[in-house]
Amino acid sequence: MEKGQQRIGEKEQMRIQSRNGSIFIKWGMLLLTLTLLLGVSGCTSLPFLYADETTIESLEETSVINDNLMISGVVTALDTEVKNITVLNIDTRESTTFAYSISTLVQNKYGDGISMAQIQIGELIDLEYDRKNGRVKEVTISPDSWELNQITQFTMDRTNKTIQAGSYLYQYESSIVIVSDEELIEPIEISDQDELTIKGRGTTAYSIIVTKGHGYVSLENEELFIGGILTIGKIAKPITANMLVVVPEGDYTLEVTKGSTKGQKQIWVEKNEELSVDIRSFVAEARQIGTVNFKIEPENAKLYVNGKETNHKEVATFDYGTYAIRVEADGYVPFAEKYQIEKSYQQKTITLEAKEQESSGQESDSETKETSSTDQPGTVVVTLPSTDTTSNTETISTTQMTSTTSLSSETTVGSPSSVSSGDVSAYKIHIMEPSQTEVYFDGDYIGTAPVTLTKVSGEHTIILKKDGYVTKTYTVNITSDQIDSYYSFPALAEN
Questions:
Q1: What's the burial of 431, exposed, middle or buried (CB within 10 Å: 0-12/13-18/19+)?
Q2: Which end of the chain has fewer CB within 10 Å, C or N?
Q3: pLDDT per residue over 200-239, tens digit each?
Q4: 173 and 66 co-located in one domain
Q5: Distant-in-sequence, close-in-space partners of 56: CB < 8 Å, separation ≥ 6
Q6: pLDDT per residue over 67-79, tens digit each?
């Protein structure tokens, strides 16, 4: 009896030991699996404003169906060799890298099978991750997503985080994925010369893909054309010394015009590259020519320039210099003066005084004073266009950056034309970093950073250039607050 009980006790002890060993093995295998999962789904941090990347096990807020993780997000990285896909969760704004296999089901938004290589960076997808085998089970381009292609006319409000394309207005989050050449960039790095693809769901844009970027055009031997007009495609800008123009990548006819002198060249603009165009061949025939638009009343009056009758109903061109002009009309007091032509474009208004008004006394004199700049009959009012090449455009605000690698937050600035109370022309824009970098403001050369310029409100382009480094363009919005603005941009990348 005792021997039987002893054998039963021994069997029970062996059973307990076996059970404990089995538990130990199971926990060991689980620990090993977790280690492998963490190794496979390694994390790669995203630059700028993107949230910290998480591990798969930390996705507590993610939907779970049949023990599988269900995620809606934007693809930020894809490695088809290692078979990893990184997704920015649009709900949690966290980035996670998942492992997939050849058995992973990949579909377009219509349910048709595609390869993983056909998934773009910036694509909005629905992903199902199988926790048991540690692999992505299914990837589907979100059926309810939308896509706008070949967008060249758009407006970004970087303060209110909206983007308008045509009649469509969408919101976006700070974590929006913006891709250029499969690299993540910030909203401020988008130029109005770029072509975009915008993807989203409902009224929210979740990703922007720069499908066509921009390059740069500069001029050599432009001295005699300063004050003229440079035209590249739809771009037309006054020619200034050492100018640098942002141009969409592609093939164009470059045209330089000053007065009646013109020159053309075919050019090809590469993305992120600078093209220097020598216009020396145009300069040989260049003269300092001014265009004058005469506005004369009455219309039947005759205009004489240096004694030669000139058609004042058409724009006339003259070499720079001083000319004797005379205007006559029946029933009117003749007008004559010496007129200086010294700009590429001038407008001259001449209003003759009717002879019968000479006897009308003080009333006539009063009327004359209202229509002329002096008390003398036949006075001319001359209006010359401003040589200020700065343009004020629709306001697009910039985003305040918080990351150590991001752009510094801007202090708002403005121009006198947009200020409701007080003059802001005494305030400045200070571009501090990166130092020893050439700075261009709306294409005009300002100097080498750190550099200061007068405040001008509206949307403007800041170009940073340095030999041996990649030229960068930033689009900033400068408002009309009466305070200096300070900008510090990231260091340029070596070319």
A1: buried
A2: N
A3: 999 999 999 999 999 999 999 888 888 889 999 889 899 9
A4: yes
A5: 37, 41, 69, 96, 98, 129, 131
A6: 788 999 999 999 9
Q: Where are the alpha helices (DSSP H) in 117-231?
A: none
CA distance 409 to 488: 8
pLDDT, residue 347, reads: 87
Q: How far is CA 287 from CA 373, 378, 405, in A?
A: 33, 33, 50
CB atoms within 10 A of CB 328: 14
Report the distance separating Cα 336 and Cα 303, nearest Å.
10
CA atoms 292, 297, 299, 302: torsion sign: negative
In angstroms, the CA 73 to CA 92 distance is: 9
pTM of the model: 0.59
Q: What is the pLDDT of residue 41?
A: 40
Residues 51 and 161 in one domain: yes
Specify the pLDDT at position 305: 92
Q: Which parts of the chain register pLDDT below 70?
A: 1-66, 260, 283-288, 356-424
pLDDT digits (tens, 9 = 90+) for 78-99: 999 999 999 999 999 999 999 9
Closest CA to 67 of 52, 57, 77: 57
Can you count the helices (H) and strands (E) in the chain?
3, 37
Same domain, 198 and 57: yes
Burial call 189-226: b when 16+ CB within 10 Å, e when fewer = bbbbbbbbbbbbbeeebbbbbbeebbbbbbbeebebbe
Spatial distance between the Cα atoms of 427 and 411, rounded to a whole number of angstroms:
12
- The total domain count for the chain is 5
User: Terminus-to-terminus CA distance in the chain, angstroms?
Assistant: 91
Residue pair 18/4 in contact by the 8 Å Cβ criterion: no
Domain of residue 434, residue span: 390-495
Contact, 221 vs 286, CB < 8 A? Answer: no
Domain identity same for 63 and 204: yes
- Please answer whether residues 230 and 267 qualify as being in contact, where contact means their C-beta atoms are separated by less than 8 angstroms: no
Is residue 248 a contact partner of residue 193, using CB atoms and an 8 Å limit? yes
User: How far apart are alpha carbons 231 and 221 in whole angstroms?
Assistant: 16
**What are the helix (H) ranges across 233-360?**
280-283
Which letter does DSSP use for residue 123 in this model?
-
The type of residue at 92 is: T
Hey, CA dihedral for 71, 75, 77, 81, is it positive or negative? positive
DSSP lists the bridge partners of residue 458 as 478
Domain boundary among 176, 196, 212: 212
pLDDT number for residue 177? 96
